[in-house]
Write a structure and sequence with these properties.
Blueprint: H1 4-9, H2 13-34, H3 39-55, H4 59-80, H5 87-98, H6 107-114, H7 118-129, H8 133-151, H9 157-163, H10 169-180, H11 184-188
Helix pairs in contact: 2-3, 2-4, 3-4, 5-6
Length: 189
């Protein structure tokens, strides 16, 4: 391992700064692991920053990255931290997030995947999350649809509905409008 003093003794300032940023990325990664964020998300953000850091061509660019990397990891924790949940609920929430495109995603599917009784899972989920499993799934699907509507403007509404596990476009539109207050098309505009 290279120590902080050794890092500053390298003659190339850009390489020096990149090494410091790599250390920061690693420290943030370790901090996020303690929040029980799923490794999939941690690997994605860590890999993204490793590539950005290594490809940076100037000290100015790396300076811009300091706050951005911290904000990125903080947003990850806000969105995906599961530390306050029991292992069953962590598994259920991760299963939901990784299967939003599955039209068969349900309490029964989760119970089978997690390996516990559906009634027990339902009560535990309500108690810990403060929402029923179907309501949580619907909310996550709407949230993901909103993200897709903004980031993938070329996708048709039907494609977005299918991507969030709701192949019936009319039902998707009705649910979206009820949750968001406007149709998916209006939201996109």
């Amino acid at each position: 391992a290279v120590g902080w003093v050794t890092l500053n003794r390298l003659p190339n300032r850009l390489r020096n700064q990149k090494n410091m940023m790599i250390v920061l990325n690693t420290l943030l990664r370790k901090a996020v692991e303690r929040a029980q964020v799923h490794p999939y998300y941690i690997d994605a953000i860590s890999g993204k920053w490793a590539v950005l850091i290594e490809n940076a061509q100037s000290l100015t660019r790396l300076d811009d990255y300091y706050y951005a990397i911290v904000r990125d990891y903080c947003a990850l924790v806000r969105k995906h931290a599961l530390k306050n949940y029991t292992p069953n609920i962590r598994s259920a929430i991760n299963c939901i997030h990784f299967n939003l495109d599955n039209p068969n995603l349900s309490l029964a599917f989760l119970a089978e995947t997690v390996g516990i009784n559906a009634t027990y899972l339902s009560h535990q989920f309500n108690r810990e999350v403060g929402s029923s499993v179907p309501s949580y799934i619907a909310g996550q699907r709407i949230q993901r649809a909103k993200e897709l509507l903004v980031s993938h403007r070329g996708l048709a509404i039907g494609q977005i509905a299918a991507a969030v596990g709701m192949p019936a476009v009319n039902y998707f539109t009705k649910l979206f409008k009820k949750a968001v207050g406007c149709t998916p098309s209006a939201f996109r505009k």
